[in-house]
Amino acid sequence: MTVEELRRELHTRAGEADVWLVYLADRFAELEGERAALVLVQAFFTRGEAYSLAEGVRQRRPWQHYYVFRLVADVMWVEGDAPRPAEYETAFGRARDALEAEVTPARLARVLVK
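User: That's the sequence. What structure does it adopt?
Assistant: Structure tokens below.
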């Protein structure tokens, strides 16, 4: 999806929508006792799709840890390029405390599944 397509999609959703972000934790950083480095894998407009992806992959590859975050995306934010923090939802794999994630509109558009 492009940023323009994301903007149009948000317009069809009254200008804003919740988006669920699925992150993969950098396992090597965790093993070394460092703060988890998160890699954005995919994003969805529904919580169920995000949880399904994270849980499904975790069952097939239990050594990988996935985390789901929620973000409120709106048209005004998408028109800029500033990162926006996402709210931690849950972990699939080993739970972590105080995880933080943020995403730019362009990055969100690249991984968002419509």
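Strands lie at 16-25, 38-44, 66-74, 84-92, 101-103, 112-113.
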